[in-house]
Amino acid sequence: MSVSYIHNKHSVTGGGFHFQFTPKYRQPVFEDEQIEFFMNNAFRAAANRLEIKIRCIEFGPDHVHLFVTHVKNYSQAKIAGYMKGLTSRLIRRDLWDRVKRYEWGESFWSDGYFSEPVGHLTDAHIEHYIGRQQKKHWAKPRLKTKKEVIITQSTLNDYR
Predict the structure, then answer these.
(1) Cβ atoms within 10 Å of 43's Cβ, excluding its own
(2) How far is 29 from 13, CA to CA, in rounded Å?
(3) What is the distance between the alpha carbons of residues 88 and 93, in angstroms, rounded to a whole number?
(4) Is the backbone of residue 64 left (phi > 0), alpha (psi -120 to 50) or beta?
(5) 16, 118 in Cβ contact below 8 A?
(6) Domains of the chain by range and CATH?
(7) CB atoms < 10 A from the CB of 123, how many?
(8) In whole angstroms, what is the distance from residue 76 CA to residue 28 CA?
(9) Distance spanning both ends of the chain, measured CA to CA
């Protein structure tokens, strides 16, 4: 494995963060494939705006795992707040008819989140970790580390 670092004018950085976000009251919203697909694209749009990279994204029925890198300019709290805020606004705006049955109150996500800093990880490490985590939620792990959802510029403009 070759280790890649981000070289900036005055710094060199590496690693990233692992996040887990949970919908309010652990509702199983991601059993709906359309909601999962929409949120996958919404998270990627948010990452593009922050100029960070999502190395891996995986959904359980009632949570999402994100591994993000290139996070030089942002704290864990800033990334979590931005990701949760933007995705909540987008899904409630664009898929309200599908998510309203899961909503109780004013927010899509629960108030908290899990995060931890991660060092350099290979795709194999990420697949192993998420696969192990997801086995308790799905019959088979549904890994997507190799498949990237392409967001066109026109799609990104829709999220502005």
Answers:
(1) 24
(2) 35
(3) 8
(4) beta
(5) yes
(6) 14-158 (3.30.70.1290)
(7) 13
(8) 25
(9) 37
Q: Widest CA span of the chain, in angstroms?
A: 49
CB 108 within 8 A of CB 21: no
pLDDT digits (tens, 9 = 90+) for 89-110: 999 999 999 988 887 777 899 9
Residue 56: its H or E element: strand 53-60
Tokens of 82: 């931005």
Q: Write the single-letter amino acid at 158.
A: D
For residue 146, with 0-12 CB atoms within 10 Å meaning exposed, 13-18 middle and 19 or more buried, which class applies? exposed
| pLDDT band, very low/low/confident/very high, at 156 (cuts 50, 70, 90) | very low
- Specify the amino acid at residue 39: M
